[in-house]
Amino acid sequence: MRNLTFGMNVSVDGYIAGPGDDLGWSLPSDELFQWWSDRVGSTGLALYGRKLWETMSSHWPTADQQPGASPAHIEYARRWRDMPKLVFSSTTAAVDWNTRLVTGDAVAEITRLKADDGGSMDIAGATLAAAAMRAGLIDEYLIVTHPVLVGGGTPFFTALDNWVNLSLVETRTFPDGVLMTRYVARR
């Protein structure tokens, strides 16, 4: 059975994007960027919602070809392109860069994927992760908290029908007061 992790940068007040989808508050230090890059390099399959897919695919496929691209950005772009990805969307027409489009029931497809053999899976995108969270499919929560209050926007957590008990399994600090906490769901 495959493990499913939901991990993103989060403000102290619990948002993954501020009002107007502002992400400017979550710019990573070099160390944090490398940590995210290493995570992308080790992910067996990434599951994206439409909105985050559009954001990522508008930049990373060619980021390594941009003037002045740092070695870290070049490496991340390569890893991102190479990482197997699924995009869940009923409105996206086509995907590229080692990606498959899923237009059907996301919860059913994620349930099927979890039952398969294979590497770890990461899920990203607030709407997609919320559906998986409500269905009890997420095994780990990886919260990279930035010391900022954004006051609104897109929340990391969704409203749930039942509690999800968690166990803290890892913490790590990064420059600029950023704290990573990793929890596993207790079932």
UniProtKB/TrEMBL annotation:
One of its GO terms (biological process) is riboflavin biosynthetic process. One of its GO terms (molecular function) is 5-amino-6-(5-phosphoribosylamino)uracil reductase activity. Residues 4-179 form the Bacterial bifunctional deaminase-reductase C-terminal domain. Pfam families: RibD_C (PF01872). It comes from the Bacteria. InterPro entries: DHFR-like_dom_sf, RibDG_C, Riboflavin_Biosynth_HTPR. This is RibD C-terminal domain protein.
